Amino acid sequence: MSRDTYAKQILGDAYENIKNAKILMVGAGGIGCELLKNLVLAGFGEVHLVDLDTIDLSNLNRQFLFGHEHIKKSKALVAKETASKFNPEVNLVAYHANIKDPQFSVSWFKSFDLVMNALDNLDTRRYVNRMCLTANVPMIDSGTTGYNGQMRVVVKGVTECYECNPIETPKSFPVCTIRTTPSQPIHCIVWAKSYLFNQLFGIDEDEATAPELDNTETADNAEELKNLRTENEELKKVKDAFGTLEFPKLVFEKVFKIDIDRLLSLADAWRTRRPPVPLDYSAVKTAADEAGLDSQKKVTMLAADDQPIWNLVENFAVFADSISRLSNRLVELQQEAGSQSKKPILVFDKDDDDTLDFVTAAANLRSIVFGIETKSKFEIKQMSGNIIPAIATTNAIVAGLCVTQAFKILNNDLEHAKMVYISQPPARMLSAGTLPPANVHCGVCGIARAAISVDPEKLTLGDFLEKVLKSKLGYSEEVSIVTSKLLYDIEFDDNLEKTFVELGVSDGSFITIMDEEEPEDGSPGRVNLEFIVLAKGDKNGDAEGDAYVLDQIPEIPKKPKAEKEPASEDEGMIVASAAPKRKADEISGDDTNLNKKSKTDGNGDSATIVIDDEDGAFLID
Amino acid sequence: MQKAGETDVPRSATPHVVSARDRKYDRQLRLWAANGQAALEEAHVVLLTASAAGAETLKNLVLPGTGSFTVVDDKLTTEEDVDVNFFLDESSIGHPRAAKVAEFLQELNTDSVGRFESLTLSEFDKLDPSYWEKYSLVVAHQIRPSVLLPISKVLWDKKIPLVIINSIGFYARLRIVTPEHTVVESHPESTVDLRLDCPWPELERFAFGIELDGLSEMDHAHVPYLALLLIYLKQWKDAHGGSPPSTYAEKKEFKALIKTGVRSSDAENFDEAINTVWRATQATTIPSNSQAILNDDRAQNLSPSTSKFWILARAISDFTKSPSSGGHLPLSGTLPDMKADTTSYIKLQSIYRSKALEDRDWVASRVSELLLSLGRPADAISSDEVDTFCKFSRNLVVFDGRSLEEEYTPSTARAKKILQELEEENSLMSVYVGFRAVEVFEEREKRYPGTVEEVDEDEKVLKEIALEIVGSLGGTEVNERTASVLKEFVRYGGGELHNISSLLGGIAAQEIVKLITRQYVPMTNTTIFDGIQSSSAVWEL
Ligand SMILES: [Zn+2]
After folding, report:
1. What distance in Å separates the CA atoms of residue A356 and residue A321, rounded to the nearest whole number?
2. pTM higher than 0.90, yes or no?
3. Which residue range or ranges hold the Ubiquitin/SUMO-activating enzyme ubiquitin-like domain (chain A) (predicted)?
4. For residue A619, how far is its CA from the centre of ligand 1 (angstroms)?
5. Which of B20, B217, B492 sits opposite A9 (nearest CB)?
6. Which value does ipTM take for this structure?
7. Separation of alpha carbons A227 and B56, rounded Å
């Protein structure tokens, strides 16, 4: 028998389809390694893989295409190199890049028969979901957490898309809880990691970009937010002492004394809460010296054990020492970078001990100030790093299932395509279900989509409204035009003279058109229309010299009749409504405003935290 | 103010420094912890037949650091092998499969020590039973029953788990054969055990010492909800002749009673109390599966060779009969999340912990007595082991296996179950019968069905064999579904499909990790996967 005889025999007619298939694999991590191996051995004709990530030691317990010698190298490139040895007939193309890069355009997506998601975060999954819907390419999504996992097929207009149901998003906390009134260890950990660490060593901007913080200003918190801005200003001043021996002391006094004293002056906040107790630097320092924690060597030994819960003095010593370590690293980086325009920064990494020590000690010190339970470094690693367990076995099961579904899609046998959940006994090990139909109210797949080529430097919003929306697509002026922000509505026409470039619309941007006209007969308006913008050069302009080309007039159906939103409140269980209203910034693909949802389980044992993990996004209790 | 997560009885104080190995295994240590990892690192797994499914199973065991593995096989690598097995390549062709697969697997992780042996099927028979003693677990891929049954008997007697895997085309089968498997760390969702219906004196003193009316608004909002429940439960009982709220209406009324106490808008603790009413009004009992284990003969009639598990179970059984337990299991000492100020949270924590330690000490001293009476050292069971056993005593698992012989002998087979399942639409039992028929076919013909030019005859023969098997169980026919499954089997010609073998390797390794670490609940004892329907079934056969 010759090679691939069995595959031919077992797969029958599907075999030719597989051999001619062109697959895009997004993500080369835990599931990605398994998937690539399966695709290569099944004889898929052409596989492109995209991953921006590099290889870390903690990947090696499952990402078997990588070895120690590959640490810090590109996952995509190494995966390609290792896997191609096993079937030289498969054409493998690897990109060490972000799938959101403009090079991966809609037309590029269109060139694939199937997209397979092996991603580790919600944001990118949503993006790929939209790209697949726009390009009308079937997608298989998969994810695992510990012993559990899931896999499903998404086909535009046929099945649910990735966002048809509200997606559990990473938990976010109101900024005042984090900055002013923490009440749980996680609040202090988020403060240390997303606020203090970034202020000292990271990007020099306010926390609007940290997804864990929600700093919506309301009438209630205006006063507090003003205070917080003062804090930020003061901290910037402390940073002038960066790299000096005084620096750890100045930071300590600033965040555990001066800021706390200021908080105490907000008497109202402490009417029903325990007021915080500021820490005194010299007293704690003396205690640390007396405890013998006076040399770096001793502190290093202390910090190396991640099991015990450190006391005040121990946290203090690790705090001061880790600040010195991180400052030295940053100074070194800055010297190496010289006068380059991009200033080097440090990024929190749960596997980077210097950053983890800092976050552990800073979080615990803040917990002590607020009378909150302190945690061990091991526990804080898990809570701060959003670590969830990951092993080869579950990834292997999920990837195997993905390929069985890929066979079905390539065989046009969607009827039998499935979604499958993997769970642990005593429950069924694999629960397969037929794919639910698309949710007609879905703001992602229940809308019309079109691509428009534009010259962003020429096309103004006014022209876009008049020439495209009104004359070509038959809208009235009662529309809203939205990207990550509102560009136009009937009461806001300030931007009409501006070009797309001036409005921040460029290649790969999404623009949503919402029909705001209410027909007098009470019939529903048209569904939203989402354009993906493709930038084109001058010479492609059409005869009239218009700065746009609309290849196809999209069909924009009427909105389905609204149904009542089911919402229920049970014993301690807050069930989020099944059909959430989608806000403009959610539609745009800009995820700074996360769905805020909370779910506590009925017995109150544990707060549910939704997190992203290395091999998939999932919900853990 | 405090919102604390589940708090466990303190860990042992052994100093622990994070090593490169811990970092590499970090993501899995969070599933099975250092003790699970240690068990894995001590294990030696042997694979019989270097197939794709077998190699994938080992891959998933080598990656997490299983101590050693051995690949046993007698074939030379062919092109078809390379096509389906990721752990063979063009250069392996013509070389022994066992050596090549072991070599490729070894590259995955140097912490794992790989070996290989060349043994033919006929040689297995002649092996001295002691040959198997060096292995902690045996994985067998597609070994014909006449060879496998005697091996399974030897392993059964030696209490070495045997995991049988089969992968043909879109179908896969997994069977775990082990006489007894006990699990202490079953990883239940929660080990919280509050005892609000039967508080012990220290807990009562703490709760009833709180004068709600006299508290400031701030203190009132920080009374732990456990204390609130105890206070209002007492109020209720006093007004209802000593009985707790039991009906739905009464529980609703009880919630209303708690609500009357709310003072400020920021009464998260009262919300917590109201949301936990169902638990507070539930009677603390010994779960029936735990009770069955405590009553088991193996616990009640100890012998010098009894395993630690049953000695511990006996000690717990004695504890539940002692006056100091009040008929309950040892307290886990785990406290749930709650809003409380630090002082009262710590106080409450120490009340639960002291009680847990007290119970644990009783059990520990009973364990020492039992060990001595069995002529074993009093410290043969460590205090950590006693701790863990007490903590999970509500969730103990004993899995009494069925031997392969029992499954394959018509008089002891689960005939009724099999025949019943075969009646179901699209039943996966048809795939099970298919695997059994293929085994017999291979045994008789020394080849797999579908590997000759003229396959119609193979299909007919396979169907006759299936009828023999069904007939031996009391059935009368091979139904349409089974016939179409058999046809598929013939079409596959005994070949593996990589992604199905890979999936089976994932499922098998997952169960093997559970067996070796003795953590989590393993599957009992057969699973069938059908890659056409993407569905699976689990049965005890
Ligand atoms: Zn949708």
Report:
1. 12
2. no
3. 453-517
4. 20
5. B492
6. 0.90
7. 58
